[in-house]
Design goal:
Elements (H helix, E strand, L loop, with lengths): L1 H23 L4 E2 L10 E5 L3 E6 L4 E5 L8 H27 L9 H37 L10 E2 L1 H53 L16
Antiparallel strand pairs: 1-2, 1-5, 2-3, 3-4
Helix pairs in contact: 1-2, 1-3, 1-4, 2-3, 3-4
């Protein structure tokens, strides 16, 4: 169980790191390199900045200075990714407390409940991150395949794949953490049955030893010694 919890925490921690990297990245959508061979320039955008680069390695980024001019789906993705990062942070704290290798959190039953809570938080974090990336990707693909859309078309950026991978790791690690409480309850039930049998046998032995011998005393006459 300890090794499984460590693996789950590694998955969740890597997923949290991927969510942070995806949130801070500026490559949520990029222009196709194949369509910009002549000009040798391309544009890539993120949740916080719009950037442009060229083949010489020069980049220029312009942040979104106000939230009121940002499109609604970008604001929704911002909120979901920030929620995913915050939930992942609290999930990591509860996960450290609930793991058996740490000496905080109380008894094994209490630590198992904390680990299960951590798993639920990580699952919510992964769902927030996956929803944000899927929403952004749906907007990109709908504009790309829309023949009536005449503005600049973009493709999926690397940040989306990083976000999807991080969300999957958080969900898998959270599910493993949730199984901690089931394993702990099974172990406790087996231990209780064994101790109960021992206590019953010991109590019977004590009662048997404590009952005085009430059999009548044997009397021997003097002929018995001849």
């Amino acid at each position: 169980m300890l090794a499984i919890q460590i693996i789950a925490f590694i998955f969740c921690f890597c997923g949290l790191g991927a969510a942070i990297a995806a949130t801070a990245s500026n490559e949520w959508k990029v222009t196709s390199r194949a369509s910009s061979v002549i000009t040798a320039t391309w544009v890539f955008q993120g949740l916080w900045m719009n950037c442009a680069g060229n083949a010489l390695g020069a980049f220029h980024c312009r942040p979104h200075l106000t939230i009121f001019k940002v499109e609604g789906y970008i604001q929704a993705c911002r909120g979901l990714m920030i929620s995913a990062v915050c939930l992942g942070f609290f999930g990591a704290v509860f996960g450290l407390v609930g793991m058996k290798c740490t000496k905080v959190g109380g008894s094994d039953q209490t630590k198992a409940k904390i680990a299960c809570l951590s798993g639920l938080i990580f699952i919510l974090s992964g769902l927030c991150s996956m929803t944000s990336c899927s929403l952004y990707a749906n907007r990109i693909t709908s504009e790309f395949f829309d023949p009536s859309f005449v503005a600049q078309k973009y493709e999926l950026g690397a940040a989306l794949f990083i976000g999807w991978a991080g969300a999957s790791l958080c969900i898998i690690g959270g599910i493993i953490f949730c199984f901690s409480i089931a394993e702990n309850s099974n172990a406790a039930r087996r231990g209780y049955a064994y101790n109960g049998a021992t206590s019953v046998m010991s109590s019977r032995t004590k009662v048997h030893n404590s009952v005085p011998d009430k059999s009548p005393p044997k009397h021997f006459d003097k002929n018995a010694y001849v």
